[in-house]
Amino acid sequence: MNGANAICPALAIGLEIAHAPHGFSKDRPILAYTIRRLAILFLSLLIAAVVLFLLLRLLPGDPANALLGVGATEQQIAAARAQVGSDQPIWLQFLGFIGNLARFDLGTSFVSRASVLDEIGNRLSVTLPLTLLGFALALVIAIPLGVIAAVHSARWYGAAISVISQLGIAIPVFWVGILLVTLFAINLRLLPSGGFPLKGWANRGEAVTAMILPVITISLVMAASLLRYVRAATLDVLGSDYIRTARALGASFPEALIRHGLRNGAVPVVSILGIELASTFLGAVVIERVFSLPGLGSMLLLAIQQRDYPNVQGVLFVSTLLVLLIGFAADLLQRLIDPRLRERVATS
Amino acid sequence: MSLVSRRNLLVAALLASVAVSPAAFAQGFDADATIRIGSLYEPQNLDNTAGAGQGINEAFNGNVYEALFQLTDAGSVEPKLSADYTVSEDGLTYTFTLVDGVTFHSGEPLTSADVKYSIERVTAETSKSSRKKSLSTITSIETPDDKTVVITLSARSISLPYNLSYVWIVNDAAADITATEDGTGPYALEEWRRGSALALSRFDGYWGDAPSNGEVIYTYFTDATALNNALLTNAVDVITSVQSPDSLAQFSGNSAYTVTEGASTTKELLAYNDRVAPFDNVKVRKALARATDKAKLLNSIWGDYGTLIGSFVPPTDPWYVDLTGVDAYDVEGAKALLAEAGYPDGFEFTLDTPDYDPHPIVAQFLQAEYAKIGVTVNINVITANEWYTKIYQEKNFEATLQEHVNHRDIVFYGNPDFYWGYNNPEVVKLVADAEAAGSVDEQTAKLKEANEIIAEDAASNWLYLYPQIVVSAANVSGYPVNGLNSQFFAYDIEKAE
Description:
The structure holds two protein chains of two kinds. Chain A is mainly α. Helices cover 78% and strands 0% of the residues of chain A. Chain A contains 14 helices and no strands. The longest helix of chain A has 38 residues, at 253-290. Chain B is α+β, with helices and mostly antiparallel strands. The radius of gyration of chain B is 24 Å and the shape is globular. Chain B is 28% helix and 23% strand. In chain B, the strands form four sheets. Chain B has a ten-stranded mixed β-sheet, with helices on both faces. At the A-B interface, α4, α6, α8 and α12 of A face β10, α6 and α11 of B.
């Protein structure tokens, strides 16, 4: 492989760093980058918090309304507004909000009076496994199929994979969910059509069964779009000089592809993965509704209808944080994979 | 309607089975069964005075909490925790004697102090209970001994026992019941997972007859299709309230399921702001009533289900009169009335339409109907929350659509400050006099009269009464079919072995 390194400097650096022990001097640029990136993350979070606070207050309606029914008296309306604080000037509400946020206190729901943070934790125990398992399964489907579709793009099955993935992108996720429910739950009676066990993950068997169809739904739709990126990235790699060189130096095609191709192909795919994971997390709302799962999305929908500010703010804040963290992780991962990006960090 | 006869058939079939083999019927169910109920109405918290929504009545009324009186599924008011009561001659003092041997789920005995505490919880300043106003005539609650409660009123209130059926009797030691409970009902709360399900288990220390099942689990859905799928896949045994007639096809005509249509109290209405022109003109309101083909509207939304009503009063209210003949569908008559009212070329108005079913469809239907008499309807879609601020509180509207769910709510027409602003002194007096009546007959007579007047005045346009449809697996029976006040008593539900 030394010969190949001499011919292909980029690949050579990649291999050298990959094989070299991680000394402090080499990590330092990454550390500086990480700190700068964290500062940006923190600032973004703050801006997001302010924007969502203001946007919520722009919506017509009053959170106190969720507590009241037809028949409420003026006095009851005033009491409800005082209870939720919507009778206070907006700047005072804002100060309270920021003050609580600084202590990572997301408050208690206006309507249910439950702690927002506890409830989010409860809901995340459904949404996180749903998103992560769906994502993992999508990768398992998309990476091999994407590579096959690229390598064998001239064969009928390579083309077939491309066409099917195109179809997969065109079909809305809820529709896939409904089709799977009709087939596996209603007709075949193999899996539940929806819902989550009362005791949650303590009832592991039922909880896992409840997750199967939603996870498959997410993974199928997500795999369809990921597959296209994997295929495109692999095609780029296949036409590259370094693969040709590796082949010329005697590496077999699979060897060249796995050793040099995957790593190079992974760089653009990782940034797409970050975006896809974030959108899957946010898009879980739809799946949660189709399968009646008590996740973060259903909590958010209800909270918006009720103008339950603490719940809406809490869910959006935590979602924003998670999405920013995913982006952050994808950036770091890219730099770990691609030494050229690390170099850029070091010189910037 | 044909469905009423279907229900009668069902009752007849049930009676027949009892007659044929009472022993088999009595032993044919599993006394420890778990009944799984599917519902779209998850309670937001567990306290009915803290904005928990209708879901809490469905799960807890009569099951976990009991009141001095109970509104039965047939619409009558019967004693529950009140063994007996007397009323003073002036009608201002009620003396209640409590049932013996009642304990709360925590093990504490029921005393008169708990009753006093419970009523005051509803009338408290911070209470969000919709019943608060109806209990405003209470001036004092005395507890001379553990079993006796004396309530003194500032004015006669014939509906006091009825209004008390909405007051849960809660243990006075239970400070916060938004996430726990301490009631006297046949079930105690076992577990509640927000967004998912709520489980009740049989309370062995219950003072009355033990329930016909061992456990009840209410499973909550946000999507009607998912709820129907749960019944189709045997994940739930019964659906409390079907909201889409389209989904019924898969259950009716299938012997694995039972479909019942009960009498709901939910009224769909076009409410005018009677304070503003042209709706302050009774002729205009009557013209719009006549221009509405309500039978066609009901059919397009509910198919063969639902009932036409001629006023705000549903057939389960004691003061129901069939008023569907008043301002019956008559487009030519409507045009003539509009001309008489000074609008020969029609007019234009904005219809504030809540964004959830069925209101947007109803709005489009009305838009098409009123175009025929030259009236232009501008549909303005708003959220439920906006409705509450803009319409209910600020009364800033011309006309709106709304579903009114309450039982016995004709009294709203006796309140000129209510959002629709209907102000007829005669009706105000009748409603007030009915409440101060010396007998139920007198109360009924007065409210019947008020009912006829609001119909003649076309105070609002009462479009139809929602059907109350319950679907269950065929091996489950004994559930309430009417679900008045959103209640769903679970204690008589039997599951065949």
